[in-house]
Structures are given as C-alpha cells and as structure tokens.
Amino acid sequence: MQDSPIPCPSLRQAALLRRYGPPEAIRVETQLLPPRKPGLVPVQVLAAAVTVGDARIRAARAPGGLGPMLRLAFGLTGPRQPVLGMFFCGRLIEPAPGLAAGSRVMGNTGMAMGAHATHLQIDPARLRPAPESLGEAEAAALMFGGLTAADFLLDKAALRPGQSLLVNGATGEVGCAALQIARHLGLVSTAICRTENHEFARGLGASACHDYRQGPPQGRWDGILDLAGTLPYARSKALLAPGGVLMPATASLGAMLGGALRPRRGTHRITASTTDDGPKALDRLLDLHRQGAIRPVVSAPLSLDQIAQAHALCDSGHKRGSVVVVMAADDRP
Ligand SMILES: NC(=O)c1ccc[n+]([C@@H]2O[C@H](COP(=O)([O-])OP(=O)(O)OC[C@H]3O[C@@H](n4cnc5c(N)ncnc54)[C@H](OP(=O)(O)O)[C@@H]3O)[C@@H](O)[C@H]2O)c1
Q1: CATH class of 144-270
Q2: 11-134+297-331: CATH superfamily
Q3: What is the pLDDT of residue 30?
C-alpha cells in the first residue's frame, strides 16, 4: 500500500454555477484548490456523473410544490456550493484508512456535491475502491441509477421472483439499472419508453415493451416504478394487481405527502421517498455488480468543457443510461 501522497497541483478546473439557470449558466473556470477541511481527503476526479438530479438543482426545478424546498436546501438564487455533482470515480491523493494513495476510488459526495471538478475533498468513509471491472466513466455512472433502483426494488417494494414490474421511463439512468436488477431478482419486467428504445430495453432484461405515445399500457403489474412522473396513483391503480406496490420516484409534494400519510390504498401500497445513498447502500450495489446483476450504461462520455451539453441531455428527458464527464488526461498528475 502506498503511504506517500501523490503530487497534487495548486489549481483545479471546476464547473461553476453562480445563479440557477439553463445549462449555459455553468462556466468551467480555473481556480485555486479550496483550503483543506479537517477529516476530508483530497481526490483527483477522473470522471463524474451528470444526473437528472444535478440538472434539477442547476435549474432550481423540482417536482410540483418542491421548488421552495430546493432553494431552502441549496441556496435562494444560486447554490451555496457552486460546484455541482455527487457521483465520481477518482484517484486518491493521500492515503486513507484501507486505501492507498494513488488508488482508484469511487464515491458519492452527497449534499456537499463538488464532483464536477478535477479535484474534490471527501470524508474517506464515503469512498470505496473502484472495481477493476469498471472503467472510470462506468464507475461514476453506476451509483445514481443503481442506488435508486436497488433501494426501490430491494427495500421498498421487496418483490418476489416471478412477480411482474412495470418500469415507466425504462431506458434512462434509473430505468437501465431497474431493468437489470429486476432481471437479477427474477422479476418479469415491462419497459415503457419510445419504440426506438424497445430493443435496447429488451437487452437490459425487459420481457415486454410499451410506447407511452400510444396511451396507457394494458395489463396489471405487482410493482410499478414510475420514473417519468406520469403514473400517479389515480392513473396507476387500474394497472396494479391486487397487493401491488406503486413506487413514484418523481413525486410532487402532494403525492409524496399523500403516499407518506396514506401508504395503503385498499390492497395497494405506495412507497415514495428519497433514496438511501450512504456507504452501506454503495457496498450492496457493488456486491450486485460483482454478482453480474448490474453494469452501468454510459451513453455520453463528454469532457468537463462540455458540461453544458451534459446538462442539456439530462434536461431532454430522453437520454439513454448515464451522462458522464471525463476529465482530460492533461489534468492528471
Ligand atoms: N426518489 C429518489 O430518491 C430518486 C432518486 C434518483 C432519481 N429520481 C428521479 O427518477 C427520475 C428518473 O431519473 P433518470 O435519470 O432515470 O431520468 P431520465 O434518464 O431522464 O429518464 C429518461 C427515460 O424516461 C422515458 N420517458 C420520457 N418521457 C416519458 C413519458 N412521457 N412517459 C414515460 N417515459 C418517458 C425515456 O424514454 P424515451 O427516451 O424513449 O422517451 C427514458 O426511458 C427523475 O425524475 C429523478 O429525479 C428519484
């Protein structure tokens, strides 16, 4: 294990957002490395995911009624932390417990964000060795969709092998993970996305597909994972089998409160809440990856200079899998 630090420059490239706005509101600038904070270790970022969550924060756009809460949490006119980004793969600059300096790590900065830069600092407890089986873009891409899908399917819905699952919004970052985990669990999945994505969805494990432009699907499912926000309970109850569970991942404030206050509707159950994305959840996700259950789909590896394009892809609502910014080789020691 390498005990001596690897070289760390005094400057970094960072994607800065000073006021909420469109993708072009983000500017990539060179700045001094922020001062070291006690208890945190420095990491050179190799790749970072740009997620729908980042795009929501950038635009201060949240599902119905949650906008004011987003501004209270992150800042009124712009984010207090101007560097967005939570999920990354990087190289550890100094040794940390169980991790050598120079080793390839992956992690989630959580609400501290800061991953859309060539360097960040993080609590070492939030880091894990990046598996050899994943490239750096893939390691960065595994977490947002994988943690969300695992949380809904394994913890919240707890569906059994042979049961059926409808994934509404099946070929985005969370959908790609959900279809794969569902296949691993022995569920029979139906994917909702445009026809041009049906073959792709089948490759990830969907048994059947439906194009949302043709109206609602026909059938009944034991679980519905609504990633598009178009199947609130009023619309999905006719699609749920007796004892079925609705998982609204994109719920409005009203729907979240409704789900929390009245989780049972006859034989149906509604389970909506934020995802557990802590280190234990990451360990479980890495186990799922090692078992061959999940492999991230990176549709767009871009450079940090292309971060506005990355945000625009997230805003489109039609990206396949994950969008990742990969740091340029000349930013590396
Ligand atoms: N609750 C939580 O803890 C949590 C955590 C993470 C994410 N989320 C939420 O989960 C949602 C999904 O995230 P993501 O990154 O997977 O999004 P995404 O990548 O933008 O999802 C794109 C998917 O949605 C499909 N889609 C687009 N319009 C649709 C429509 N009208 N009806 C049905 N499907 C449609 C797309 O299909 P086509 O491309 O074929 O149109 C594609 O399959 C986001 O709203 C995010 O905020 C929640």
Answers
A1: alpha beta
A2: Medium-chain alcohol dehydrogenases, catalytic domain (3.90.180.10)
A3: 97
